[in-house]
Write a structure and sequence with these properties.
5 helices
Length: 99
C-alpha cells in the first residue's frame, strides 16, 4: 500500500457520522488535491471493514461511485443525512472538510 493510499483511508476513517466529503475533499486532505479520481479507485479496491466509504460522495452533493446507490442512500439516511435518489440535500451544510 502506498503512502497516499494510507492517507486516503485515514481521511475517510475521520469523516464523522452524519457528514459527507467529496472525493476531491479526501484527495486534498490526503495531500494530493487534484487526485479525486485516484481516491475513487483506492476506495473501490480497498477492503477495510468498518470504514465509512458511504460518506464519500461526488462533487456538488451527487451520490455517485458506490457499488449500490440504494445501500449508500440507506446508510446515509440512517445517519440522519437527507438524501434524494441521487443527491445529498443541504450538501454545503453537512459537508466535512477536515475541520
Amino acid at each position: 500500500m502506498t503512502p497516499f493510499e494510507k492517507k486516503v483511508l485515514t481521511v475517510v476513517s475521520r469523516i464523522p457520522p452524519g457528514r459527507v466529503a467529496t472525493y476531491g475533499d479526501v484527495a486534498r486532505l490526503a495531500g494530493k488535491p487534484r487526485a479525486a479520481r485516484a481516491v475513487g479507485n483506492i476506495l473501490r479496491e480497498a477492503d477495510r471493514p468498518g470504514l465509512p466509504y458511504h460518506r464519500v460522495i461526488a462533487a456538488g452533493g451527487r451520490l455517485g461511485g458506490y457499488t449500490s446507490l440504494a445501500l449508500k442512500r440507506s446508510l446515509l439516511a440512517a445517519e440522519g443525512v437527507p438524501v434524494t435518489p441521487g443527491r445529498v440535500m443541504g450538501f454545503a451544510r453537512i459537508r466535512w472538510q477536515g475541520k
